[in-house]
Amino acid sequence: MSEEAELRAKLKRAAHMLFFRTHSKPGVKGWELKKGLGRNYLQVIDLLNKELEKIGLRVETISQEGEKPKSEQDFLYSSFFVTFKDPPDWPEIRGSGWRIDEMAALTACLSLILSRGGKVKRKEIDELLEKKMPSWRARAIIERFFRMGYLSLGEEDEVIVGWRSRVEIDLQKLMNLLLGREVGTA
To answer: Do 109 and 81 belong to one domain?
Structure first.
């Protein structure tokens, strides 16, 4: 097999691994990609990322600590995801299964957490949403955010930004929009 054909096969395999969920949690670990694609898996992912950018998607990587991986070892234990390159348009959101009140609730939770330095008591999140919707609905939405990974429980019943919010949401852009700043300025 020629080198180009082998690379095409690896690109196809990488796309299959990233698009088709095999775990309860979306994404693929770096070591799984290395096992399936070989030593140069990061180069294959970079090439796949360039192809995906043409259709408005990107490969996002997040370490176990919730940060961008820095070393080769970090990449092995990081999770790789396919997500939107830019924020989705209304038709994409409408077809995603999210209700508008759920999106508003997530935005409110994230903005409260970010405005308080990255963590807030669970009770404050509950109170925030219970002002806007029935308490049973607020609790159900918050539990869903925990299950899906958009929010996480830290120490002492504190709510922090979850791994999935870090991957799928441009948190800096969200804060700029909430503060009324233009997105291009800091």
So the answer is: no
